[in-house]
Amino acid sequence: MADGLTVAVTGPTGDLGIAIVSALERSRSVKLIRGMARRPFDPAERGWRKTEYRQGDVTDAASVRDLVAGADVVVHLAFAILTASDATRELNVAGSRLVFEEAAIAGAERICYASSVAAYGFHHDNPDWLKEDVPARGSPEHPYSQQKAEVEGFLADTVRRHPRTVAYVFRPCIVAGPEARTMVEEIPYYRVEEAMPAPVARLVRAFPVLKPVIPDPGTSFQLVHEDDVARAFLAGVRGVGEPGPYNLAGDGVLTIEDVATALGWYSVPVPRPIVEATAEVVTRLPVVPDSVAWIHSVRKPVLMRTDRARRLLRWRPEHTSKATLQAMVAAHRAEVAAR
């Protein structure tokens, strides 16, 4: 296992990127980190001392070549999630393919890719608990899912053609935590609340009867803490275990009712036939808003076993799904209070 690694990271300023770069900064095995993002950022603002900033785009070959030149390991995180659609194929699919190819040509020893549980697809014939030997088929009606699965295929093809480079593919469930708050911040109520005049928002928060109600389709899901995902990536960067896919999830399962309870809101059950009917209607619409496609993600639970990561990476989630939810909500409340 090599020391003094140079690690190139795409998407270092996203929810997951911040946690991963912070973990790399603390590792004695890492000498230098190069982070590339579309928008400027100052590593010193986060106390990062090993990290160099490169402004660039994963769809630009020159930017990618500059980033990966001389890197021992390339960590690929840059990906449009909530807006995934045909419009993001250039970034998500073509950009990922370019990063993989240039990393292998440059002689990187390892590529660590942030895939997703969504890569398995939301298929009714999937097993109730997913292991890494289940094919990552994606769901055509869910662009993010389909693109994640497609990119995994490109990565597998890259390492077949460049056998000196190996790949670690991490499939986390929903990532959450103090920095990774997208899940709660994208609930429509928060968008509405942000647009309210301050006195009205305070009034709404003060009266329980005015608390929002969010629909609960009853589908179980898992959360994984940003720091637990970062520890798995660090293991891959250091070459622990063996290459291949790894499921990442915190212990325990949740439903939307648990989210509503943590937020101090209410939830109302949504009958399964209504969920299925809505998803079928969405599938047949000629033009579907990006966010609406996510209705398909509640049709079939996607729960994962993490035995492989525990055995080969010696990885254990330090945070349960419930504790991760609480940490995310606490951080969000603190930020709202500060504003």
Kindly describe this structure.
This protein is of the alpha/beta class and about 350 residues long. The chain has a domain at about 5-175 and about 225-250 and about 305-315: NAD(P)-binding Rossmann-like Domain (Rossmann fold). It contains 12 helices and 13 strands. The strands form 4 sheets. The protein has a 7-stranded parallel sheet with strand order 3-2-1-4-5-7-11, sandwiched between helices. Strands 6-13 form a two-stranded parallel ribbon. Strand 1, helix 1 (about 15-25) and strand 2 form a beta-alpha-beta unit. Helix 3 (about 90-105) packs parallel to helix 4 (about 145-160) and helix 9 packs parallel to helix 12 (about 320-339). The longest helix is centred in the middle third of the chain and has 19 residues, at about 145-160. The model is unreliable at about 190-195 and about 275-295 (pLDDT under 50).
Protein topology:
Elements: E1 5-10, H1 15-26, E2 30-37, E3 51-55, H2 61-68, E4 73-76, H3 89-105, E5 110-114, E6 129-130, H4 143-161, E7 166-172, E8 174-176, H5 182-185, H6 188-195, H7 198-206, E9 213-216, E10 223-225, H8 226-237, E11 244-248, H9 256-263, E12 266-269, H10 272-284, E13 303-304, H11 307-312, H12 321-338
Parallel strand pairs: 1-2, 1-4, 2-3, 4-5, 5-7, 6-13, 7-11, 8-10, 9-12
Major β-sheet strand ordering: 3-2-1-4-5-7-11
Count of DSSP E strands? Answer: 13
CATH topology tier name of the domain at 5-173 and 226-249 and 304-317? Rossmann fold
CATH first level of the domain at 5-173 and 226-249 and 304-317: which class? Alpha Beta
The helix content, as a percent range, equals 25-40%
Can you tell me the CATH superfamily of the domain at 5-173 and 226-249 and 304-317? NAD(P)-binding Rossmann-like Domain
The radius of gyration computed from the alpha-carbon positions, rounded to a whole number of angstroms, is: 20 Å
